[in-house]
Each structure stands twice: as structure tokens, then as C-alpha cells.
Amino acid sequence: MSLLQQPRYRRVLLKLSGEALVGDGAYGIDAGRIKEVAAQIGEVVGLGVQVATVVGAGNIFRGVAGSATGMDRATADYMGMVATVINAMALQDALEKVGVITRIQSAIHMQEVAEPYIRRRAIRHLEKDRVVIFAAGTGNPFFTTDTAAALRALEIGADAILMGKKKYDGVYDDDPETNPEAVLIPRLTHREALERGLKVMDSTALSLCMDNCLPILVFNMGVPSNISLAIRGELVGTVVSCEADGGAD
Predict the structure, then answer these.
(1) Measured between alpha carbons, how far is 88 from 232 in angstroms, rounded to an integer?
(2) What is the pTM (predicted TM-score) of this model?
């Protein structure tokens, strides 16, 4: 492997939104889409990178949406956590079909389908080149899977968080859903993202990354090569770091 192909990051946490598993549908899990995601993760594992993942559940149930309809917020959030386990099991199945050994660790005990979350065990799995899928968020209501991703990334000593988006190429200066003139920002700091209210991840998760100088790479999961390119340090979306000129080359 040439120097240009060498991975920049040794251990990463990949945060996938639930919507990234939908494909062209409105909800649920698209078999073809999850196979594509599994193939991309398998390619990264093949580069010798240790990969952990956190999957959201917006394709099945979103706690905030449930709360908005009058449901108790804590109950709605627990339902969302259970939904992430469904996504984790689907991703595990797809990964193992392409030859990637995986373990699911759940913050809510579900011993029939997942291990309990144990930090040292998760690190040991990674050292054995297994992909670890962290499910059920932090195990607490009122915290998003973004916060779970930041927390788990720090706990396992990840070098970066990779944020895979369903259709957008990175972080924009405005909401591209409502403003077609929104401009992609290739590099910015955590503080700039917080102060400008940019949609990187929720403010709790972003503050946690800022306090610990953990880089965040935001890119479009719809481009098959983007994960491996980001791992190699190429700028394929937006790099959020402690210094605006840090991150990928």
C-alpha cells in the first residue's frame, strides 16, 4: 500500500443516521442500501482501520416526533432506543454477509440479541478487527444518538467521528432543504459550528467533541468511495476540528 493509500485514522466511529438505511423509500430498511453501507464499511476494515458504529433510528421511530404528538418524552425516547437495536441487527447481518465479523453492544440490556455495553470489551473487539455496533444510544432519554456517538468515540479512543449523511455532501452555511443557494463549508471549528448554529450534530454532542478536540468528518454516504477517502485524509465533505485548517489534507 502506497503512502497516499495509508489510512490517516487508526480507529474511527461511524455515525449513521437511520435515514441512511432507507434508500429511496420514506421509512424502514432498504436491503440494497444496507448492503452498500456494509460494503463500504468492509472496505475500510480491509485497510486495517478499526471501526465502531452508532446507528440512529429516524427511519423507524424518532423520540422527538413521538413527544410532539403528545407522547411522554422519556417513553418516546426509549422507543427510539429500541428502534436503534433493530437497525443494528440489520447492519450486523449485512456486514457478516460480506465477511466482516461484528458485535452489537446495547446500552439497554437485550442479552438475547446483543452484548451489554462494556467499554473494555468493546476495545478488545476492535483490537481483534471486529466492527462494534453501539445500539440504544446512551441508554438514557433526552440524549440523542449524536451524543451517544460522541460519548462512545471518546470512550474507545477513536481518532475521529465520521458522520455519514443520506444526501448532503457536508455542512452548509444554511439549511439546504430550504435554501438552494446554501454553500458547502469545507473546514470549520467546533466553536464556529456552535456559534453559527450549523447542522453538524446536536449541541451537546458537538460541545463534547469540542472539549476533547475530537475531529468530525461530515460527508455524503451516497458516494460509495467517500468513507475510504475520508479515512485516507482526503477532503470529501466538511472537516470540523479544533483548528479550521486542521483535519484532512
Answers:
(1) 26
(2) 0.90
